[in-house]
Amino acid sequence: MDGLIGLDWGTTRLRAYRFDGAGRVQDTRTRPWGIRSLPAGGYEAALADVTAGWPALPRLACGMVGSRGGWLEAPYVDLPAGADALCAAVRRLRAADGMDLHIVPGLRNPTAPDVMRGEETQLLGAVAQRPASAARSAWILPGTHSKWATVEGRAVTGFRTYLTGELYALLREHSILGAGIAEAVSPAAFARGVDAARDSGAQGATSRLFATRALMLEGALAPAEVPDYLSGLLIGEEFRSALAGGLPPPGEAPGLIGEPALCERYRQAAARFGLALAPPVADAAALGLWHVAGRIGLVHDRGRPASEESSPC
Amino acid sequence: MDGLIGLDWGTTRLRAYRFDGAGRVQDTRTRPWGIRSLPAGGYEAALADVTAGWPALPRLACGMVGSRGGWLEAPYVDLPAGADALCAAVRRLRAADGMDLHIVPGLRNPTAPDVMRGEETQLLGAVAQRPASAARSAWILPGTHSKWATVEGRAVTGFRTYLTGELYALLREHSILGAGIAEAVSPAAFARGVDAARDSGAQGATSRLFATRALMLEGALAPAEVPDYLSGLLIGEEFRSALAGGLPPPGEAPGLIGEPALCERYRQAAARFGLALAPPVADAAALGLWHVAGRIGLVHDRGRPASEESSPC
Description:
The structure is a homodimer of 313-residue chains. Chain A has 313 residues and is α/β, with parallel strands linked by helices.
Protein backbone atom coordinates (compact mmCIF):
# COMPACT_ATOMS: atom_id res chain seq x y z
CA MET A 1 0.00 0.00 0.00
CA ASP A 2 1.22 3.46 -0.89
CA GLY A 3 0.77 6.52 1.26
CA LEU A 4 2.12 8.44 4.27
CA ILE A 5 1.45 9.12 7.91
CA GLY A 6 2.06 12.80 8.67
CA LEU A 7 2.32 14.18 12.19
CA ASP A 8 1.94 17.81 13.22
CA TRP A 9 3.36 17.50 16.73
CA GLY A 10 3.46 20.70 18.74
CA THR A 11 3.79 21.81 22.35
CA THR A 12 0.25 21.03 23.41
CA ARG A 13 -1.26 18.94 20.62
CA LEU A 14 -0.56 16.04 18.28
CA ARG A 15 -2.41 15.81 14.99
CA ALA A 16 -1.99 12.82 12.68
CA TYR A 17 -2.91 12.57 8.98
CA ARG A 18 -3.19 9.37 6.97
CA PHE A 19 -2.58 10.06 3.28
CA ASP A 20 -3.34 7.73 0.40
CA GLY A 21 -0.86 7.26 -2.44
CA ALA A 22 -2.13 10.37 -4.21
CA GLY A 23 -1.65 12.65 -1.21
CA ARG A 24 -5.31 12.79 -0.24
CA VAL A 25 -5.98 12.86 3.51
CA GLN A 26 -8.02 9.75 4.32
CA ASP A 27 -8.18 10.15 8.09
CA THR A 28 -7.20 12.75 10.71
CA ARG A 29 -6.79 12.20 14.43
CA THR A 30 -6.06 14.76 17.15
CA ARG A 31 -4.75 14.09 20.66
CA PRO A 32 -3.96 16.53 23.48
CA TRP A 33 -0.45 15.09 23.58
CA GLY A 34 1.97 17.87 22.85
CA ILE A 35 5.59 17.42 23.85
CA ARG A 36 4.73 19.04 27.21
CA SER A 37 1.65 16.90 27.78
CA LEU A 38 2.58 13.38 26.73
CA PRO A 39 0.59 10.32 27.88
CA ALA A 40 2.06 7.57 30.06
CA GLY A 41 4.64 5.84 27.89
CA GLY A 42 5.76 9.11 26.36
CA TYR A 43 6.45 9.58 22.65
CA GLU A 44 6.31 5.86 21.82
CA ALA A 45 2.90 5.39 23.41
CA ALA A 46 1.55 8.54 21.78
CA LEU A 47 2.76 7.48 18.34
CA ALA A 48 1.39 3.94 18.75
CA ASP A 49 -2.01 5.22 19.86
CA VAL A 50 -2.47 7.96 17.28
CA THR A 51 -1.60 5.58 14.41
CA ALA A 52 -3.37 2.48 15.82
CA GLY A 53 -5.09 0.46 13.12
CA TRP A 54 -3.48 2.42 10.28
CA PRO A 55 -1.31 0.59 7.74
CA ALA A 56 2.47 0.54 8.17
CA LEU A 57 3.35 3.61 6.10
CA PRO A 58 6.36 5.95 6.08
CA ARG A 59 6.07 8.49 8.88
CA LEU A 60 7.03 12.16 8.81
CA ALA A 61 6.59 14.67 11.62
CA CYS A 62 7.02 18.43 12.01
CA GLY A 63 6.82 20.78 14.97
CA MET A 64 8.20 20.86 18.50
CA VAL A 65 8.79 17.09 18.42
CA GLY A 66 12.05 18.06 16.67
CA SER A 67 13.09 20.65 19.28
CA ARG A 68 15.90 20.23 21.78
CA GLY A 69 13.37 19.17 24.40
CA GLY A 70 11.52 16.96 21.92
CA TRP A 71 11.95 13.35 20.84
CA LEU A 72 14.94 13.99 18.61
CA GLU A 73 16.48 17.35 17.90
CA ALA A 74 16.42 18.35 14.25
CA PRO A 75 18.61 21.50 14.41
CA TYR A 76 17.30 24.74 12.95
CA VAL A 77 18.12 25.64 9.35
CA ASP A 78 19.17 29.27 8.89
CA LEU A 79 17.40 31.71 6.57
CA PRO A 80 17.18 32.12 3.67
CA ALA A 81 15.98 28.52 3.43
CA GLY A 82 14.33 26.79 0.50
CA ALA A 83 12.80 23.35 0.40
CA ASP A 84 16.13 21.74 -0.54
CA ALA A 85 17.91 23.00 2.57
CA LEU A 86 14.98 22.05 4.76
CA CYS A 87 14.69 18.56 3.27
CA ALA A 88 18.43 17.94 3.54
CA ALA A 89 18.18 18.54 7.28
CA VAL A 90 15.33 16.12 7.97
CA ARG A 91 16.39 13.72 10.71
CA ARG A 92 15.33 10.16 11.44
CA LEU A 93 14.86 8.00 14.53
CA ARG A 94 14.01 4.34 14.92
CA ALA A 95 10.85 3.91 17.04
CA ALA A 96 10.18 0.95 19.36
CA ASP A 97 7.98 -0.64 16.70
CA GLY A 98 11.06 -1.03 14.49
CA MET A 99 9.99 1.62 11.99
CA ASP A 100 11.44 5.04 11.29
CA LEU A 101 10.04 8.43 12.14
CA HIS A 102 11.40 11.30 10.04
CA ILE A 103 11.39 14.80 11.54
CA VAL A 104 11.38 18.12 9.67
CA PRO A 105 13.71 20.77 11.16
CA GLY A 106 12.64 24.26 12.12
CA LEU A 107 13.92 27.56 10.72
CA ARG A 108 16.06 30.17 12.39
CA ASN A 109 16.28 33.83 11.51
CA PRO A 110 19.86 34.67 12.44
CA THR A 111 19.44 38.44 12.11
CA ALA A 112 16.32 39.08 14.22
CA PRO A 113 16.83 36.48 16.05
CA ASP A 114 13.78 34.28 15.82
CA VAL A 115 12.80 30.63 15.40
CA MET A 116 9.90 28.53 14.10
CA ARG A 117 9.01 24.84 14.22
CA GLY A 118 6.04 23.50 12.32
CA GLU A 119 5.27 26.73 10.49
CA GLU A 120 8.08 26.05 7.98
CA THR A 121 6.14 22.95 6.91
CA GLN A 122 2.91 24.93 6.68
CA LEU A 123 4.69 27.55 4.55
CA LEU A 124 6.00 24.84 2.24
CA GLY A 125 2.50 23.44 1.94
CA ALA A 126 0.92 26.81 1.28
CA VAL A 127 3.46 27.72 -1.38
CA ALA A 128 3.10 24.27 -2.98
CA GLN A 129 -0.62 24.93 -3.14
CA ARG A 130 -0.09 28.34 -4.79
CA PRO A 131 2.91 27.95 -7.10
CA ALA A 132 2.71 31.61 -8.15
CA SER A 133 3.61 32.61 -4.58
CA ALA A 134 7.02 30.90 -4.72
CA ALA A 135 8.66 33.87 -6.43
CA ARG A 136 7.46 36.40 -3.89
CA SER A 137 4.79 36.31 -1.21
CA ALA A 138 3.96 37.21 2.36
CA TRP A 139 2.16 35.07 4.91
CA ILE A 140 0.55 35.46 8.30
CA LEU A 141 0.28 32.35 10.49
CA PRO A 142 -1.95 33.30 13.46
CA GLY A 143 -1.64 31.27 16.63
CA THR A 144 -0.16 31.00 20.10
CA HIS A 145 3.03 32.36 18.57
CA SER A 146 1.90 34.15 15.43
CA LYS A 147 4.38 34.41 12.56
CA TRP A 148 4.66 36.93 9.73
CA ALA A 149 6.83 35.43 7.00
CA THR A 150 8.17 36.47 3.62
CA VAL A 151 9.03 34.17 0.71
CA GLU A 152 11.28 35.24 -2.12
CA GLY A 153 12.94 33.23 -4.88
CA ARG A 154 11.54 29.92 -3.58
CA ALA A 155 12.94 30.43 -0.08
CA VAL A 156 11.73 31.74 3.25
CA THR A 157 13.70 34.96 3.59
CA GLY A 158 12.39 36.43 6.82
CA PHE A 159 9.89 36.07 9.62
CA ARG A 160 8.93 37.61 12.92
CA THR A 161 7.05 36.04 15.84
CA TYR A 162 4.40 37.72 17.99
CA LEU A 163 3.35 36.21 21.30
CA THR A 164 -0.25 37.25 20.62
CA GLY A 165 -2.09 34.00 21.38
CA GLU A 166 -0.07 33.24 24.49
CA LEU A 167 -0.47 36.78 25.84
CA TYR A 168 -4.21 36.55 25.27
CA ALA A 169 -4.44 33.27 27.19
CA LEU A 170 -2.36 34.68 30.07
CA LEU A 171 -4.40 37.87 30.33
CA ARG A 172 -7.68 36.01 29.95
CA GLU A 173 -6.95 33.38 32.58
CA HIS A 174 -4.71 35.04 35.12
CA SER A 175 -4.80 38.85 34.90
CA ILE A 176 -6.85 41.47 36.66
CA LEU A 177 -8.32 42.28 33.23
CA GLY A 178 -9.69 38.91 32.20
CA ALA A 179 -9.76 36.45 35.08
CA GLY A 180 -13.15 35.22 36.21
CA ILE A 181 -15.07 36.93 33.44
CA ALA A 182 -17.79 35.13 31.53
CA GLU A 183 -17.46 35.42 27.78
CA ALA A 184 -19.84 36.48 25.05
CA VAL A 185 -19.03 36.72 21.36
CA SER A 186 -18.84 40.40 20.48
CA PRO A 187 -17.54 41.38 17.05
CA ALA A 188 -18.12 45.02 18.01
CA ALA A 189 -15.89 44.75 21.09
CA PHE A 190 -13.24 42.97 19.00
CA ALA A 191 -13.32 45.78 16.45
CA ARG A 192 -13.03 48.42 19.20
CA GLY A 193 -9.98 46.62 20.56
CA VAL A 194 -8.35 46.47 17.13
CA ASP A 195 -9.04 50.18 16.61
CA ALA A 196 -7.59 51.08 20.02
CA ALA A 197 -4.36 49.27 19.15
CA ARG A 198 -4.23 50.82 15.67
CA ASP A 199 -4.83 54.31 17.03
CA SER A 200 -2.22 53.91 19.78
CA GLY A 201 0.41 54.77 17.15
CA ALA A 202 4.01 54.55 18.26
CA GLN A 203 2.96 54.20 21.91
CA GLY A 204 1.71 50.71 21.19
CA ALA A 205 -1.13 48.79 22.78
CA THR A 206 0.73 47.97 26.00
CA SER A 207 -0.29 51.51 26.98
CA ARG A 208 -3.95 50.62 26.31
CA LEU A 209 -4.23 47.30 28.16
CA PHE A 210 -5.18 48.77 31.51
CA ALA A 211 -7.79 50.98 29.85
CA THR A 212 -9.81 47.77 29.40
CA ARG A 213 -10.38 47.85 33.13
CA ALA A 214 -11.24 51.54 33.17
CA LEU A 215 -13.73 51.06 30.33
CA MET A 216 -15.36 48.20 32.21
CA LEU A 217 -15.52 50.13 35.49
CA GLU A 218 -17.31 53.04 33.86
CA GLY A 219 -19.76 50.83 32.00
CA ALA A 220 -18.36 51.60 28.54
CA LEU A 221 -17.50 47.92 28.11
CA ALA A 222 -19.65 45.08 29.49
CA PRO A 223 -17.66 42.47 31.42
CA ALA A 224 -18.64 39.79 28.88
CA GLU A 225 -17.20 41.98 26.10
CA VAL A 226 -13.77 42.17 27.74
CA PRO A 227 -12.37 38.94 26.22
CA ASP A 228 -13.15 39.97 22.64
CA TYR A 229 -11.92 43.50 23.33
CA LEU A 230 -8.63 42.11 24.65
CA SER A 231 -8.38 39.78 21.67
CA GLY A 232 -8.85 42.76 19.35
CA LEU A 233 -6.30 44.82 21.27
CA LEU A 234 -3.63 42.10 21.04
CA ILE A 235 -4.27 41.11 17.42
CA GLY A 236 -4.45 44.81 16.57
CA GLU A 237 -1.08 45.34 18.28
CA GLU A 238 0.36 42.54 16.14
CA PHE A 239 -0.80 44.31 12.97
CA ARG A 240 0.29 47.74 14.23
CA SER A 241 3.75 46.48 15.14
CA ALA A 242 4.22 44.43 11.96
CA LEU A 243 3.17 47.34 9.75
CA ALA A 244 5.44 49.72 11.70
CA GLY A 245 8.25 47.25 11.00
CA GLY A 246 7.71 47.27 7.25
CA LEU A 247 5.66 44.09 7.00
CA PRO A 248 4.23 42.94 4.69
CA PRO A 249 6.58 44.07 1.89
CA PRO A 250 5.02 46.83 -0.23
CA GLY A 251 2.48 45.55 -2.71
CA GLU A 252 2.12 42.14 -1.09
CA ALA A 253 -1.31 40.97 0.09
CA PRO A 254 -0.38 38.36 2.71
CA GLY A 255 -2.06 34.98 2.71
CA LEU A 256 -3.39 33.54 5.95
CA ILE A 257 -2.46 30.07 7.16
CA GLY A 258 -4.24 28.59 10.15
CA GLU A 259 -7.48 27.60 11.85
CA PRO A 260 -10.45 29.07 9.95
CA ALA A 261 -12.00 30.80 13.00
CA LEU A 262 -8.72 32.47 13.94
CA CYS A 263 -8.00 33.39 10.31
CA GLU A 264 -11.40 35.09 10.20
CA ARG A 265 -10.42 37.24 13.21
CA TYR A 266 -7.22 38.23 11.46
CA ARG A 267 -9.14 39.00 8.28
CA GLN A 268 -11.38 41.35 10.23
CA ALA A 269 -8.40 43.00 11.92
CA ALA A 270 -6.61 43.44 8.57
CA ALA A 271 -9.68 45.19 7.17
CA ARG A 272 -9.55 47.76 10.00
CA PHE A 273 -5.95 48.48 9.04
CA GLY A 274 -6.89 48.76 5.35
CA LEU A 275 -4.66 45.79 4.60
CA ALA A 276 -5.68 43.54 1.69
CA LEU A 277 -5.26 39.80 2.24
CA ALA A 278 -4.98 36.85 -0.12
CA PRO A 279 -7.44 34.02 0.65
CA PRO A 280 -6.46 31.67 3.50
CA VAL A 281 -4.86 28.29 2.92
CA ALA A 282 -6.50 25.42 4.78
CA ASP A 283 -4.66 22.25 5.90
CA ALA A 284 -1.26 23.77 5.14
CA ALA A 285 0.52 21.40 7.55
CA ALA A 286 -0.84 18.34 5.75
CA LEU A 287 0.07 19.82 2.38
CA GLY A 288 3.58 20.58 3.59
CA LEU A 289 4.17 17.16 5.13
CA TRP A 290 3.11 15.52 1.87
CA HIS A 291 5.32 17.85 -0.09
CA VAL A 292 8.42 17.18 2.05
CA ALA A 293 7.75 13.42 1.97
CA GLY A 294 7.75 13.57 -1.80
CA ARG A 295 10.99 15.51 -1.96
CA ILE A 296 12.88 13.19 0.37
CA GLY A 297 11.58 10.07 -1.38
CA LEU A 298 9.25 8.76 1.34
CA VAL A 299 6.41 8.79 -1.18
CA HIS A 300 6.10 9.13 -4.90
CA ASP A 301 3.86 12.08 -5.53
CA ARG A 302 2.85 11.32 -9.08
CA GLY A 303 1.41 14.76 -9.64
CA ARG A 304 4.53 16.49 -8.40
CA PRO A 305 7.67 14.30 -8.49
CA ALA A 306 10.43 15.14 -6.04
CA SER A 307 12.94 15.76 -8.81
CA GLU A 308 10.87 18.32 -10.68
CA GLU A 309 12.88 21.51 -11.17
CA SER A 310 9.90 23.77 -10.68
CA SER A 311 9.02 22.49 -7.21
CA PRO A 312 7.94 25.52 -5.29
CA CYS A 313 9.95 27.05 -2.48
CA MET B 1 -3.32 60.36 72.77
CA ASP B 2 -2.88 62.10 69.45
CA GLY B 3 -2.01 60.35 66.20
CA LEU B 4 -3.37 58.33 63.29
CA ILE B 5 -3.62 54.81 61.95
CA GLY B 6 -3.05 54.82 58.20
CA LEU B 7 -3.83 51.85 55.98
CA ASP B 8 -2.48 51.26 52.48
CA TRP B 9 -4.89 48.49 51.48
CA GLY B 10 -4.40 47.08 48.00
CA THR B 11 -5.38 44.03 45.99
CA THR B 12 -2.84 41.66 47.47
CA ARG B 13 -1.43 43.41 50.54
CA LEU B 14 -2.41 45.43 53.60
CA ARG B 15 0.12 47.78 55.18
CA ALA B 16 -0.65 49.66 58.39
CA TYR B 17 1.18 52.70 59.80
CA ARG B 18 0.85 54.04 63.34
CA PHE B 19 1.66 57.75 63.43
CA ASP B 20 2.35 59.81 66.53
CA GLY B 21 0.81 63.26 66.94
CA ALA B 22 3.58 64.86 64.88
CA GLY B 23 3.11 62.57 61.89
CA ARG B 24 6.09 60.35 62.60
CA VAL B 25 5.59 56.67 61.80
CA GLN B 26 6.04 54.77 65.08
CA ASP B 27 5.21 51.29 63.81
CA THR B 28 4.51 49.56 60.47
CA ARG B 29 2.84 46.21 59.92
CA THR B 30 2.32 44.31 56.69
CA ARG B 31 -0.13 41.47 56.05
CA PRO B 32 -0.78 39.46 52.84
CA TRP B 33 -4.43 40.48 53.13
CA GLY B 34 -5.35 42.40 50.02
CA ILE B 35 -9.01 42.71 49.12
CA ARG B 36 -8.68 39.52 47.05
CA SER B 37 -6.87 37.59 49.79
CA LEU B 38 -8.66 38.44 53.03
CA PRO B 39 -8.35 36.25 56.14
CA ALA B 40 -11.30 34.41 57.70
CA GLY B 41 -13.56 37.13 59.09
CA GLY B 42 -12.89 39.38 56.11
CA TYR B 43 -12.26 43.12 56.38
CA GLU B 44 -13.23 43.35 60.07
CA ALA B 45 -10.86 40.57 61.10
CA ALA B 46 -8.03 42.00 59.00
CA LEU B 47 -8.46 45.47 60.49
CA ALA B 48 -8.66 44.12 64.06
CA ASP B 49 -5.53 42.04 63.61
CA VAL B 50 -3.36 44.60 61.86
CA THR B 51 -4.15 47.25 64.50
CA ALA B 52 -4.13 44.92 67.53
CA GLY B 53 -2.55 46.52 70.59
CA TRP B 54 -2.40 49.96 68.99
CA PRO B 55 -4.23 52.86 70.68
CA ALA B 56 -7.74 53.83 69.49
CA LEU B 57 -6.77 56.47 66.92
CA PRO B 58 -8.57 57.89 63.89
CA ARG B 59 -8.22 55.53 60.92
CA LEU B 60 -7.72 56.42 57.28
CA ALA B 61 -7.25 53.98 54.38
CA CYS B 62 -6.38 54.28 50.71
CA GLY B 63 -6.23 51.79 47.85
CA MET B 64 -8.47 49.05 46.50
CA VAL B 65 -10.33 48.85 49.82
CA GLY B 66 -12.34 51.75 48.39
CA SER B 67 -13.09 50.08 45.05
CA ARG B 68 -16.47 48.74 43.98
CA GLY B 69 -15.40 45.27 45.05
CA GLY B 70 -13.84 46.59 48.26
CA TRP B 71 -15.19 47.26 51.73
CA LEU B 72 -16.96 50.50 50.81
CA GLU B 73 -16.87 52.15 47.41
CA ALA B 74 -15.38 55.64 47.42
CA PRO B 75 -16.21 56.70 43.85
CA TYR B 76 -13.44 57.99 41.60
CA VAL B 77 -12.76 61.72 41.43
CA ASP B 78 -12.24 63.01 37.88
CA LEU B 79 -9.11 64.82 36.73
CA PRO B 80 -7.90 67.46 37.15
CA ALA B 81 -8.07 66.76 40.87
CA GLY B 82 -6.38 68.63 43.69
CA ALA B 83 -6.25 67.73 47.34
CA ASP B 84 -9.51 69.59 48.09
CA ALA B 85 -11.54 67.55 45.61
CA LEU B 86 -9.96 64.35 46.82
CA CYS B 87 -10.53 65.14 50.49
CA ALA B 88 -14.13 66.19 49.87
CA ALA B 89 -14.81 62.72 48.46
CA VAL B 90 -13.36 60.73 51.38
CA ARG B 91 -15.98 58.28 52.59
CA ARG B 92 -16.57 56.75 56.00
CA LEU B 93 -17.85 53.45 57.37
CA ARG B 94 -18.53 52.28 60.89
CA ALA B 95 -16.55 49.15 61.70
CA ALA B 96 -17.71 46.38 64.06
CA ASP B 97 -15.57 47.82 66.84
CA GLY B 98 -17.76 50.91 66.82
CA MET B 99 -15.11 53.18 65.33
CA ASP B 100 -14.94 54.79 61.93
CA LEU B 101 -12.72 53.95 58.99
CA HIS B 102 -12.26 56.76 56.48
CA ILE B 103 -11.41 55.83 52.88
CA VAL B 104 -9.65 57.99 50.28
CA PRO B 105 -11.18 57.81 46.77
CA GLY B 106 -9.26 56.99 43.63
CA LEU B 107 -8.77 59.17 40.58
CA ARG B 108 -10.21 58.77 37.10
CA ASN B 109 -8.82 60.15 33.89
CA PRO B 110 -11.95 60.72 31.82
CA THR B 111 -10.10 61.36 28.56
CA ALA B 112 -7.75 58.36 28.37
CA PRO B 113 -9.68 56.51 30.17
CA ASP B 114 -7.71 55.31 33.15
CA VAL B 115 -8.05 54.87 36.92
CA MET B 116 -5.88 54.73 40.03
CA ARG B 117 -6.46 53.81 43.67
CA GLY B 118 -3.77 54.31 46.25
CA GLU B 119 -1.38 56.14 43.96
CA GLU B 120 -3.36 59.40 44.38
CA THR B 121 -2.45 59.28 48.08
CA GLN B 122 1.20 58.56 47.25
CA LEU B 123 1.20 61.51 44.85
CA LEU B 124 -0.25 63.78 47.54
CA GLY B 125 2.41 62.59 49.94
CA ALA B 126 5.24 63.07 47.46
CA VAL B 127 4.11 66.56 46.54
CA ALA B 128 3.64 67.44 50.22
CA GLN B 129 7.22 66.32 50.75
CA ARG B 130 8.47 68.49 47.86
CA PRO B 131 6.38 71.67 47.90
CA ALA B 132 8.17 73.04 44.85
CA SER B 133 6.69 70.22 42.77
CA ALA B 134 3.10 71.35 43.37
CA ALA B 135 3.24 73.92 40.59
CA ARG B 136 4.48 71.47 37.98
CA SER B 137 6.02 68.01 38.18
CA ALA B 138 6.01 64.53 36.71
CA TRP B 139 6.06 61.24 38.59
CA ILE B 140 6.62 57.59 37.87
CA LEU B 141 5.09 55.06 40.26
CA PRO B 142 6.51 51.63 39.33
CA GLY B 143 4.56 48.56 40.32
CA THR B 144 2.12 45.86 39.26
CA HIS B 145 0.25 48.61 37.45
CA SER B 146 2.83 51.34 36.92
CA LYS B 147 1.60 54.91 36.65
CA TRP B 148 3.10 57.95 34.94
CA ALA B 149 1.46 61.07 36.34
CA THR B 150 1.66 64.82 35.84
CA VAL B 151 0.90 67.49 38.42
CA GLU B 152 0.15 71.09 37.49
CA GLY B 153 -1.23 73.96 39.53
CA ARG B 154 -1.59 71.82 42.67
CA ALA B 155 -3.66 69.17 40.90
CA VAL B 156 -3.10 65.82 39.24
CA THR B 157 -3.77 66.67 35.59
CA GLY B 158 -3.03 63.39 33.82
CA PHE B 159 -1.80 59.85 34.21
CA ARG B 160 -1.38 56.66 32.26
CA THR B 161 -1.14 53.08 33.53
CA TYR B 162 1.18 50.36 32.24
CA LEU B 163 0.57 46.73 33.13
CA THR B 164 4.32 46.18 33.41
CA GLY B 165 4.54 44.38 36.76
CA GLU B 166 1.56 42.15 36.09
CA LEU B 167 2.80 41.23 32.59
CA TYR B 168 6.18 40.36 34.07
CA ALA B 169 4.62 38.07 36.68
CA LEU B 170 2.44 36.37 34.04
CA LEU B 171 5.34 35.81 31.64
CA ARG B 172 7.65 34.72 34.43
CA GLU B 173 5.28 32.21 35.97
CA HIS B 174 3.16 30.91 33.14
CA SER B 175 4.70 31.58 29.72
CA ILE B 176 6.94 29.56 27.47
CA LEU B 177 9.54 32.29 28.01
CA GLY B 178 9.83 32.31 31.78
CA ALA B 179 8.13 29.31 33.35
CA GLY B 180 10.34 26.85 35.20
CA ILE B 181 13.48 28.92 34.88
CA ALA B 182 15.80 29.47 37.83
CA GLU B 183 16.72 33.07 38.40
CA ALA B 184 20.01 34.87 38.81
CA VAL B 185 20.50 38.60 39.28
CA SER B 186 21.92 39.96 36.03
CA PRO B 187 22.15 43.73 35.60
CA ALA B 188 23.71 43.10 32.17
CA ALA B 189 20.72 41.04 31.00
CA PHE B 190 18.37 43.69 32.39
CA ALA B 191 20.21 46.39 30.44
CA ARG B 192 20.09 44.31 27.26
CA GLY B 193 16.34 43.92 27.66
CA VAL B 194 15.88 47.66 28.17
CA ASP B 195 17.97 48.37 25.08
CA ALA B 196 16.02 45.87 22.98
CA ALA B 197 12.76 47.62 23.90
CA ARG B 198 14.25 51.09 23.31
CA ASP B 199 15.64 50.06 19.93
CA SER B 200 12.37 48.43 18.82
CA GLY B 201 11.17 51.92 17.90
CA ALA B 202 7.57 52.19 16.77
CA GLN B 203 7.29 48.40 16.49
CA GLY B 204 7.34 48.14 20.26
CA ALA B 205 8.67 45.40 22.47
CA THR B 206 5.78 42.99 21.85
CA SER B 207 7.68 42.18 18.66
CA ARG B 208 10.77 41.34 20.75
CA LEU B 209 9.26 39.11 23.44
CA PHE B 210 9.64 35.86 21.52
CA ALA B 211 13.23 36.73 20.68
CA THR B 212 13.98 35.99 24.34
CA ARG B 213 13.41 32.36 23.51
CA ALA B 214 15.50 32.50 20.35
CA LEU B 215 18.37 34.15 22.24
CA MET B 216 18.22 31.43 24.89
CA LEU B 217 18.09 28.62 22.34
CA GLU B 218 21.20 29.86 20.59
CA GLY B 219 23.10 30.38 23.84
CA ALA B 220 23.18 34.18 23.57
CA LEU B 221 21.22 34.40 26.82
CA ALA B 222 21.68 31.98 29.72
CA PRO B 223 18.39 30.57 31.06
CA ALA B 224 19.04 32.20 34.45
CA GLU B 225 19.38 35.58 32.70
CA VAL B 226 15.94 35.34 31.10
CA PRO B 227 13.98 36.82 34.04
CA ASP B 228 16.10 39.97 34.22
CA TYR B 229 16.11 40.26 30.42
CA LEU B 230 12.30 40.05 30.40
CA SER B 231 12.11 42.58 33.23
CA GLY B 232 14.29 44.95 31.19
CA LEU B 233 12.23 44.38 28.06
CA LEU B 234 8.96 45.20 29.83
CA ILE B 235 10.23 48.17 31.83
CA GLY B 236 11.98 49.37 28.68
CA GLU B 237 8.69 49.09 26.77
CA GLU B 238 7.04 51.21 29.45
CA PHE B 239 9.64 53.95 28.95
CA ARG B 240 9.57 53.64 25.16
CA SER B 241 5.78 53.90 25.07
CA ALA B 242 5.57 56.73 27.61
CA LEU B 243 8.21 58.77 25.78
CA ALA B 244 6.50 58.12 22.43
CA GLY B 245 3.32 59.44 24.05
CA GLY B 246 4.91 62.71 25.12
CA LEU B 247 5.65 61.78 28.72
CA PRO B 248 7.18 63.23 30.78
CA PRO B 249 6.34 66.83 29.73
CA PRO B 250 9.37 68.57 28.18
CA GLY B 251 11.87 69.76 30.74
CA GLU B 252 10.46 67.68 33.58
CA ALA B 253 12.72 65.21 35.39
CA PRO B 254 10.16 62.79 36.86
CA GLY B 255 10.41 61.72 40.48
CA LEU B 256 10.09 58.07 41.39
CA ILE B 257 7.65 56.83 44.02
CA GLY B 258 7.80 53.22 45.16
CA GLU B 259 9.80 50.36 46.62
CA PRO B 260 13.52 51.22 46.60
CA ALA B 261 14.61 48.07 44.72
CA LEU B 262 12.05 48.61 41.98
CA CYS B 263 12.83 52.34 41.81
CA GLU B 264 16.47 51.42 41.30
CA ARG B 265 15.50 49.30 38.26
CA TYR B 266 13.54 52.21 36.84
CA ARG B 267 16.47 54.54 37.50
CA GLN B 268 18.73 52.24 35.49
CA ALA B 269 16.20 51.98 32.68
CA ALA B 270 15.78 55.77 32.57
CA ALA B 271 19.53 56.18 32.22
CA ARG B 272 19.51 53.96 29.11
CA PHE B 273 16.87 56.25 27.60
CA GLY B 274 18.91 59.32 28.54
CA LEU B 275 16.08 60.47 30.81
CA ALA B 276 17.05 62.47 33.91
CA LEU B 277 15.15 61.62 37.10
CA ALA B 278 14.52 63.51 40.32
CA PRO B 279 15.42 61.54 43.47
CA PRO B 280 12.86 58.95 44.60
CA VAL B 281 10.39 59.63 47.40
CA ALA B 282 10.23 56.93 50.08
CA ASP B 283 7.13 56.18 52.17
CA ALA B 284 4.91 58.31 49.95
CA ALA B 285 1.76 56.43 51.00
CA ALA B 286 2.39 57.17 54.69
CA LEU B 287 3.12 60.82 53.87
CA GLY B 288 -0.06 61.06 51.84
CA LEU B 289 -2.27 59.43 54.44
CA TRP B 290 -0.98 61.83 57.09
CA HIS B 291 -1.51 64.77 54.75
CA VAL B 292 -5.11 63.82 53.93
CA ALA B 293 -5.86 63.13 57.60
CA GLY B 294 -4.68 66.66 58.40
CA ARG B 295 -6.81 68.23 55.70
CA ILE B 296 -10.02 66.46 56.71
CA GLY B 297 -9.47 67.19 60.40
CA LEU B 298 -8.71 63.67 61.62
CA VAL B 299 -5.43 64.94 63.07
CA HIS B 300 -3.92 68.31 63.78
CA ASP B 301 -0.70 68.46 61.87
CA ARG B 302 1.04 71.19 63.82
CA GLY B 303 3.74 71.61 61.23
CA ARG B 304 1.27 71.87 58.37
CA PRO B 305 -2.24 72.84 59.48
CA ALA B 306 -5.14 71.74 57.30
CA SER B 307 -6.26 75.31 56.70
CA GLU B 308 -2.97 76.55 55.35
CA GLU B 309 -3.44 78.20 51.95
CA SER B 310 -0.17 76.92 50.58
CA SER B 311 -0.95 73.24 51.14
CA PRO B 312 0.50 71.49 48.17
CA CYS B 313 -1.58 69.81 45.51
